[in-house]
Amino acid sequence: MTNQEIQVQMPPDLDPVYSNMIQIAFKDDEFTFLFLHQIPGTNQARTKAVVSISPRHAKSLLAVLGRSMGEYEEKFGPLDAPPDRPTEGVTTTLSGYS
């Protein structure tokens, strides 16, 4: 194995989750991503995963996502950016997470 290869081990009982919404919070030493599933026709969302990473890793994630999106669009065609959602007057209440 070279220095560029990483062996990833996934537990056999690890279930994939679907998220159709994400919220991001940050402070000086971490970014926290809340992966949510917004329930259609309601004003509710369920948290599916919470992941915290360092700012340096967040910067790397941004670069990897950019490259991956470019590869995706090369293969499947360009995507239009989603319309901006209004955020003014929108309040999110988290329960069960501190």
Structural description of this entry:
- The chain has 1 helix and 3 strands; from the N terminus they run βββα.
- The chain is α+β, with helices and mostly antiparallel strands.
- The chain has a domain at 21-76: Transcriptional Co-activator pc4, Chain A (Roll), CATH 2.30.31.
- A 3-stranded antiparallel sheet has the order 1-2-3.
- Strand 2 (30-38) and strand 3 form a beta hairpin.
- The longest helix is centred in the last third of the chain and has 22 residues, at 55-76.
- The N and C termini lie far apart (41 Å).
- The relative contact order is 0.13.
- The mean pLDDT is 89.
- Number of helical segments? 1
Q: What's the Cα radius of gyration?
A: 17 Å
Low-confidence stretches: none
Give the end-to-end Cα distance, rounded to a whole number of Å: 41 Å
